[in-house]
Amino acid sequence: MEPVTPANIDAALALRVHPHQEHNVAPVVNSLAEAYAWGDTAWPRLVFDGDELVGFVMAFLDIPWNEEKDPADRRSGLWRLNIAAEGQGKGYGRFAVEAVRDELLRRGARRLYVTWEPGEDGPGEFYRRLGFRTTGEVSGGQTVGVLDIG
Hints:
- The longest helix has 15 residues, at 92-106.
- Strands 1-2-3-4-6-5 form a six-stranded mixed β-sheet, sandwiched between helices.
- The radius of gyration is 15 Å and the shape is globular.
- By secondary structure, it is α+β, with helices and mostly antiparallel strands.
- It has helices at 9-14, 28-38, 92-106, 124-129; strands spanning 42-49, 52-64, 74-83, 111-116, 133-139, 142-148.
């Protein structure tokens, strides 16, 4: 896991998921723009296997979830996960989620949240295999999942 730097930004921007997954996850360029706009609320990292870039992950840190409903409900979790098409099925996604979990634990979080596009070709099964359970909530049309981590 490495931060995004001037030395690796071009590789990060070139990272692509499988074409049939593109509707499920925003490209890295969108994530980096969001990270810039949200500042310390975003935790973007690149996933390397040796010198090879295999993925991108971004966490959200302590955001107000639904201020109108419950101003005290602040959450942290997985904002974005992009694993390169050729790197899928090799454990990189699991590694990235575990790295986010470890960072959130270090920061004192007790739960890791994630949202995903519903549907047969969405990542829901991947997250369920990692232990996430659905909350019954929907956020921006996406299913909300949670994993107890501490």
